[in-house]
Each structure stands twice: as structure tokens, then as C-alpha cells.
Specification:
This protein is α+β, with helices and mostly antiparallel strands. The protein has 2 domains: about 90 residues, Gcn5-related N-acetyltransferase (GNAT) (Aminopeptidase), CATH 3.40.630; about 130 residues, 3-Layer(aba) Sandwich (Aminopeptidase). It is built from 11 helices and 13 strands. A hairpin with a 2-residue loop joins β1 and β2. α1 packs antiparallel against α8 and α5 packs across α10.
Length: about 280
């Protein structure tokens, strides 16, 4: 399965929010330009490492740093052999959970921990999606995404970065029906789900104090899982859990939450970088 960051939809999204994108033979290369000093070249979870093409693009765009986040340990060893160094601060989650969506909904629920199932049953029929709001209220997409962002902002305040409306619209416009923006009716929790190459992603999420108290996010995730399964996704990726190799204790809480849905762990090598000195 191709990682979502290597899909054509994701390349469209990044190109809309200010990145230069070179898509060559099915591999996405992302370039962030900086006036006068050059650029950063980023390649995330490619199916193969094409070092000659990476070097050509680095020269073309005057890259002063190359960032590669490989899928496989063999690719990581190769990168090390050609001068890349393992970073202590990866950009993408280095460990995640995959949930097999080939099972029935009943079997999926049976695999959840008791507290997850109880929270889901408690929150029966209290979520609404961005798509449903458009149909039911007649609002246009821009207004609906704006309302979704307002709920997000009111939930987290200044504690977390919230993408600007233009970025959220670009995301929706790039993934179209393979994206879902969803909140609880009480507007105390919400999330964005994406699908790329038959893999669904728990992309971003938020919850306020009341939502945490009532365990609202369990129902949000369950709705996302059912939506992804209905759209033909084969795997649900929880997009990151705590990794002892790159410890971040703030990830422990939501790791416990995500593990209550079952699934199996998947690990990635990490982030490898090379700094290119100016000639």
C-alpha cells in the first residue's frame, strides 16, 4: 500500500498550500523554497529511494537540506551509507497502529476494549459530518469548513496550531469524497479522516474538556472507521502512537486511547537528513 503522502491527492494538497511538488514515476518530492538561501527537499515514505533523482532535484532547487522518511529498514541502511544521519526529531510518526477493515462491523467492535465499546454505545446518533451539514442545511463548502474550524478553535483555544481555512479547503478540495470532517452534535470533539490508496487515516482530531469527560472521541473514531470501511478502505491507520525510540511523553495519553481499538503495531525507521553546504 502506498503511503498517503505519496498519493496524487496529497501532492495536489501540498501544492495548494505553498510547496513546490515534483511527481516523478509515482514518487512525490516536496520542495519548500526560502528566499535567497535555497530550499528544503522532503521525501516521505516513498516506495523506493532514487538517490540520483534526489541529488538532481537538490541541485535544481538549491536545497540546503534533504529530508527522507523511509518506509523500510533496508532503505534506512542505504540512506546511512550515502551520508544521511538519523534525526532525533522525526516529522512523521515512527510507530502507529493499523486496524484491519476486512472484518465485519460486529467483529471490529468485539475487538475493541470494554471502555471503548461502552463510550461508543453511549454516544449513539450524536455525530454529524461536514457532508451531512451541506446536504441538510444548504450551506456551501467554505461556510461549512469554517464552522468546523470554529468548533476546533473553541475546543483547543491557543494551546494548539489549527490550520487556516485555506489549508482545510485545500485538503477537502484535493481529497474530495475521500475526506471526512466530523464533529459531535454537542461540538465538544471532532476529527478529520482521509483515505489514500485504500488506507484510511485518523488525520487530525480535537476534544475539549467536556468531550474528554464524556469520552466523545470514541464515537468520532468509530464513525470514521465505519465511513472508511464503507468507502472501500482496507486498513485504518491511527497515524501515530508512542515510540520508545523517540520518546515524547505527551503521546502516552492518546496512545492508550488508540490502543483501545485493537489493531497491530507498525514501525518505521525514522527521519534521515543530509545538510548540503553551499558551494
Amino acid at each position: 500500500m502506498v503511503d498517503i503522502r505519496q498519493t496524487s491527492e496529497y501532492s495536489k494538497y501540498l501544492s495548494k498550500i505553498g510547496w513546490e511538488v515534483e511527481r516523478i514515476a509515482g514518487i512525490n518530492y516536496f520542495i519548500k523554497k526560502f528566499p535567497l538561501i535555497g530550499s528544503v527537499l522532503k521525501i516521505q515514505r516513498p516506495e523506493e529511494i532514487r538517490i540520483n533523482k534526489i541529488n538532481d532535484l537538490a541541485k535544481k532547487f538549491r536545497a540546503f537540506q534533504i529530508i527522507v522518511e523511509p518506509k523500510r529498514e533496508l532503505d534506512a541502511k542505504f540512506l546511512t551509507s550515502v551520508g544521511f544521519k538519523l534525526s532525533k526529531s522525526p516529522y512523521l510518526p515512527t510507530k502507529t497502529l493499523f486496524l484491519d477493515l476486512g472484518k465485519s462491523e460486529k467483529a471490529l467492535l468485539a475487538g475493541f476494549k470494554k471502555d471503548a465499546r461502552a463510550a461508543i454505545y453511549r454516544y449513539e446518533e450524536v455525530v454529524k459530518s461536514e457532508a451531512e451539514e451541506i446536504v441538510n442545511s444548504g450551506k456551501n463548502l467554505e461556510s461549512t469548513i469554517g464552522l468546523f474550524r470554529d468548533v476546533w478553535k473553541n475546543s483547543v483555544g491557543l494551546k494548539r496550531y489549527i490550520p487556516p481555512p485555506s489549508h482545510l479547503l485545500a485538503l477537502r478540495g484535493s481529497f474530495k469524497d475521500n475526506s471526512l470532517f466530523i464533529t459531535t452534535a454537542e461540538k465538544n470533539a471532532g476529527a478529520i479522516f482521509l483515505i489514500g490508496d485504500k488506507v484510511a487515516y485518523y488525520w487530525q482530531a480535537f476534544t475539549n474538556k467536556e468531550g474528554r469527560r464524556t469520552l466523545a472521541q470514541y464515537k468520532i473514531v468509530w464513525e470514521g472507521i465505519k465511513w472508511a470501511k464503507g468507502r472501500g478502505a482496507k486498513v485504518f491507520d491511527f497515524e501515530g502512537i508512542y515510540d520508545e525510540r523517540f520518546p515524547n511523553k505527551s503521546w502516552l495519553g492518546f496512545t492508550h486511547f488508540k490502543k483501545s481499538f485493537g489493531g497491530y503495531e507498525v514501525t518505521y525507521p525514522g527521519c534521515f537528513t543530509k545538510v548540503i553546504l553551499p558551494i
